[in-house]
Amino acid sequence: MNRPRLAVSLIFFVCGFIYTSWSSRLPRLQDLLDMDNKTLGLMLLASAIGSLCSMPLTGWLTVRQGSRFATTLSVGLFCGSLLLLSLATTTWELFAAFWVVGVCTGALDVSMNAQAVLVEKQQGRPLMSTFHATFSVGMMVGALAGSLFIELSPSLFVHFGAASLFCAILSFWAVQQLITDAPTPVDDQATSSFQLPSPALLGLGLIAFSAMLSEGAMADWSTNYFKNVVGASEAAAPLGLTVFSGAMMTGRLLGDWARQRLGDRFLLRYGAALGAIGLALVLLIPLYPVSLAGLAVVGIGLSTLVPIVYSMAGHRTDYAPGVSLAMVTTVGYFGFLVGPPFIGFLADWQGLRLALGIVVVLLIATVLVSGLSQPVRTGPSVNVPSSSKMQ
């Protein structure tokens, strides 16, 4: 594995690790500030709003300064933003902290995926699913670390501080190995990040919306579901998220191989179907072993949806990669925007099981529309742009 590929993999790992570092402690934050599910949903809404604010700006920054600069800036801020959550003493402070975390998350999502597209082009083959597998590795390790810190019972500041320092050390090496891409000429219409997506990109964005809402629902609510519905202990509850992340990792490690043999359309359609079946199993039989198995099925099903959509967007020729990725991720992140508060409101009204049932319905709808997507071609003919150089 060459250095740019390893560096991008590490940055994806850092993103997943920090994400589950705080999502595994949501029950603790909920208890500390005495929040109901509706209020917690609003906290998660703040994160989604922050991401939506930063994504178009990151597309613009990637065009003007290159994805290496944007990735370096966003991963540094992302590592530091985690500490803000542990310092909040009121719900308003926590809302602001989640907004900042969301800004950093959205910026990193766009910039690191733009770097991933450059590595795909340099290697001449699909790699996006593998990169997203390292995100799932980070999620799994972060969830395990969350269980460990819960067992040791340190403060949130100790947990989040240790996670931030660990990720900062990894990121310091990684950003020095990224591909340097020159700024794109600003007079090209395809480089304008402040425009509406084309119908093709909008279709990709809608699939991303469904997939990201489903992934976010599992990441944000599975720990609560295991604790409050399944009846798991506080230390055992995050293990559901660990199983989900591990299944996502496994599916994504095999995803690039599967794309070459089965095709993008097949994986989009049957992945969404598998996710719906697995989540239905979790909701219909809320027993700990069955729910763990169900989340594993959900993870396998959802594993390749977002990587395929991101790769398809990044390889389009009618937009600069950073711009097309910003468009698709912005539409997709509306799933994170509407998902957490909607699930929270519905959970307080009718219960968390019914609220998560909406995700099953959405995945079934994704099965019906995913057949309209067009696969992306990646192969030896795809090269790194001449404006890029290896470091």
From TrEMBL:
Keywords: Membrane, Transmembrane, Transmembrane helix. Gene3D superfamilies: MFS general substrate transporter like domains. It is a multi-pass membrane protein. It holds the Pfam family MFS_1. GO terms for cellular component: membrane. Its main location: membrane. Residues 4-377 form the Major facilitator superfamily (MFS) profile domain. One of its GO terms (molecular function) is transmembrane transporter activity. PROSITE patterns: MFS. The chain crosses the membrane at residues 39-57, 69-88, 131-150, 156-175, 196-215, 235-255, 267-288, 294-313, 325-346, 352-372. It is found in: Membrane. This is MFS transporter.
